[in-house]
Amino acid sequence: MLSSAAQENEPFWRLPLAEFHRNQLPSNFAELNNTGSAAYPAGASTAAGFLSHFVENYREGWLHIDCSATYRKAPVEQWAAGATGLGVRTIANLLTA
To answer: Helices in 8-67 by DSSP H: which ranges?
Structure first.
């Protein structure tokens, strides 16, 4: 993934997935909660921690692409309002490699 991103000149980087990310979603009613809380705020690594519970070997062989920041409600200096498309070229490169 990182190689494909570099080839497409798109900014991708590896985020941590530590054991504590997997344990930040406790629930009083289920094995796992799918939302953050005041004590455990949600974020990209927390989302990956949630998804990792559904992967047989979560330490290797899968990707979580957090693309929540690829949409802008209002324009900013480098992006117009709306979808940025950031990451599409990287994923296409990865799939066609």
So the answer is: 19-22, 44-52
Measured CA to CA, the distance from residue 25 to residue 37 in angstroms comes to: 8
Q: How far, rounded to the nearest angstrom, does the alpha carbon of residue 51 sit from its chain's CA centroid?
A: 10
Domain segments of the chain as ranges:
2-96
82: which strand partners? 72
CA distance 41 to 38: 6
How many other β-carbons are positioned within 10 Å of the β-carbon of residue 5? 18
User: Is residue 36's pLDDT more than 80?
Assistant: no
Output the pLDDT for position 53. 94
pLDDT band at 9 (very low <50, low <70, confident <90, very high): very high
